[in-house]
Predict the structure.
Amino acid sequence: MSQLLDNILSRSNMLEAYNRVKANKGSAGVDGVTIDDIDDYLRQHWRSTKRLIKQRKYKPQPVLRVEIPKPNGGIRQLGIPTVMDRIIQQAIVQVLSPICEPYLSETSYGFRPNRSCEKAIIKLLEYLNDGYEWIVDIDLEKFFDTVPQDRLMSLVHNMIQDGDTESLIRKYLHSGVVINGQCHKTLVGTPQGGNLSPLLSNIMLNELDKELENRGLHFVRYADDCVIAVGSEAAAKRFKYSVSRFIEKRLGLKVNMTKTKIVRLGKLKYLGFGFWKSSEGWKSRPHQDSIQGFKRKLKKLTARKWSIDLDSRIEKLNWLIRGWINYFALTNMKSTMLSIDERLRTRVRVIIWKQFKKKSKRLWGLLKLGVPKWIADKVSGWGDHYQLVAQKSVLKRAISKPVLVKRGLVSCLDYYLERHASKVK
């Protein structure tokens, strides 16, 4: 057994992989073994599994294919390996990532240490403010399903040069996929959703990065999302076709020419961000599609017909608010957050008013909130006119922002201002 595979299977590395997979949770694969079941499963099977890996006889289980609806329509296909295979893949990634890092491009930001979507956007803004305002937006068609495996393994070999580890990786590429109960071979592609896939995609697309560097182009890539910034429309047209030819002929990937386009900055959407020009230059903000998606999720979580206690609802709202704002915290969106905040509080007031149900309970609730009895008597009779009560009555003052914050609801505006200030220091 090679030293590299020995490092992958070492107790310390496997324990770290186990902890990361446990922390990420996730669904069971084709074997039905869940995160909660994995401890017992490992006690029964890990020794034999490790022995089979060392002997190059281990066969990963097929990946379970599920379909995830996209926000704008359509379906995204996602692969779910078994929990055991997720742990092994994670162990491979932990050892190989430091080996592959020196080969990868500086402007590749996806799934790498100390890199993020935010840093990709910062780099793109540098290009835009240097005058490269024409964007070639490359769209790779079904990238994870069309990767030529022989070409990919050749690139993996160039970086790691270890037969035992390469054999294990190839087994994961060939593990198959279960769709509607039927197992299908996977002779091309790398299953989207596996722990190995991000690293393998970076190795594959590093060839594209090096080609763009050799041409002296300014580009940013995050996984398979790649944009090239150039100084003129003529250059954009030229590189759109020449780069697409390189991707198809040299890498064996498919470019979606209907979605690969030349974009002016006012219409660009990249990694969920949009762009606008101020007196100080180009800046980023959440794209309108991202904002509308955020609003839809908030609306779903504040549907008054959903029977859930208020504390649990606030917990789910806070998780969504913090996650979305953390992603976009670098951008300019104060007025957007103010507007969303006001609408969100209105919807929470409606939920509380509906939970009171009867006039007597509404009267009791208003009095408890400190509303004078003569006003409470009047408003409690307004019945199910939810929007009217939430926006025009004393309820708006009684269930004010400080009251909801004290109850635990995160203010979108306040949280954004806090996170934005920490980003721009």
